[in-house]
């Protein structure tokens, strides 16, 4: 490296970078290049590997194999702190600040020693320096002494940005940050990126917003299913071209349902009526779900689909509108009312929300059915045993015993336990948020079979997913969300293609 004139500006490079999570190949031998004096855009469908490649560069996780070079040196940071010390700063897709401490403490986390000796921090000095860090990015909205928790999502993001920029990185990664920001917040981020480019530093910018990518980036790299598909120059950055490179995920195997043309039942079982969620992500949103329907819900990461799942289950505060169960006509206002009307919900984050990892398989499976198993408050051992064994057997959960703690099961088997918990309850309407995330093909196929059997039994399934092939393969009807609003509706058909859907999604 370095001896090639054209590559003088090369600052970061991956060679054959590969990352697997169990059966999932998140990155497949990727050669990715980032140059000084340029804003390098990164685009690709959900799950194409954008966050994975940049987080490996920043030191948040190690690769499975392959090499990285930063400023001509082999690069293998063991933590985000080490990555930052080497000169790579990353603004992450999720919340990047820590609750329970002040704005200034967040900015100088782990570096408090700068402001005092022997653990005595000069708070006034630290706050003054924090103010400078905030002003440096053109943000004056937060008091450095305020608790971070008093700030909203956007302001917390801006504090995180100030922190990353304060460390003067030579390469800055901005991972899908702008979609969550208002115009003024976006302007701040655009200005930082442009300033860094003008200072001959490097920027990697991940976004789904074609307009802003085309406007801001010097080159645009497209990832698809963990493979680097192409890198486009400015003159090649045309929306249709970009979309064409993004689509084309392989529809591997034939494990989806293969029936077409079934009529959609006319009875509605659940509807959202002009719902505006507390976070403002969904605005005046209305939709209906029919009996026996598999309703797919898709879109890009921040389109509001995950929030919609929680709204339908009564797990989000609503500013306006309501969610109504039919034919009872009753409003779903909490998970309790949802469950009493036969709703079940499997969250995307199954480890955090759907399972108690330190409890046994048995206790997890019965946890949604206490009212049914013990109507008078007393649970019969034999009834519990039959109940649990029925679920474990019909789902073929691979375990030594139902007394085993859930935490030691594989991802696929954990997911089966979550399914068992709700199927055992005999739900009429099951909301599944990314049900096949991180499970292998075999478990996926079993889930699709189960979902289909539930439909055949007259149950209603709402399947939220980031994977278009399974949405196309399984849904009777498919709703695509964009920026918290309905962008398109598709009815099951063998002709339905990813291209049509991407067209309204991006
Ligand atoms: N910690 C993890 N455990 C299991 N699978 C993961 C993990 N992180 C990412 N993945 C999977 O790796 C793939 C790439 O994910 P990611 O890099 O987050 O995609 P993107 O940022 O492009 O949406 C996806 O299939 C995702 O489900
Ligand atoms: Mg991502």
How would you describe this structure in keywords?
506 residues, alpha/beta, six-stranded mixed beta sheet, 24% strand, globular, disordered N terminus, binds adenosine-5'-diphosphate, binds magnesium ion
Task: Describe the overall structure.
By secondary structure, the chain is α/β, with parallel strands linked by helices. The protein contains 18 helices and 20 strands. A six-stranded mixed β-sheet has the order 7-8-9-4-10-11, with helices on both faces. The protein has a six-stranded mixed β-sheet with strand order 16-17-18-14-19-20, with helices on both faces. Strands 1, 2, 3, 5 and 6 form a five-stranded antiparallel β-sheet that branches. The longest helix is centred in the middle third of the chain and has 16 residues. The protein is globular and about 65 Å long. The two termini are 37 Å apart. The N terminus is likely disordered. Bound molecules: adenosine-5'-diphosphate and magnesium ion. The site of magnesium ion (MG) has 4 residues, from helix 1.
Question: Which spans have pLDDT < 50 for at least 5 consecutive residues?
Answer: 1-5
- Count all strands and give the number: 20
* Ligands (ions, cofactors included): adenosine-5'-diphosphate, magnesium ion
Largest sheet: 6 strands, mixed
Estimate the global geometry from the Cα principal axes: globular
| Number of helices in the DSSP assignment | 18
Q: Reading side by side through the largest sheet, how are the strands ordered?
A: 7-8-9-4-10-11
Query: Which structural class do you get from the secondary structure elements?
Result: alpha/beta
How many angstroms does the end-to-end distance come to? 37 Å
Rg result:
25 Å
Give the percentage of residues in beta strands: 15-25%
Proportion of helical residues: 25-40%
The average pLDDT value, as a whole number, equals: 90
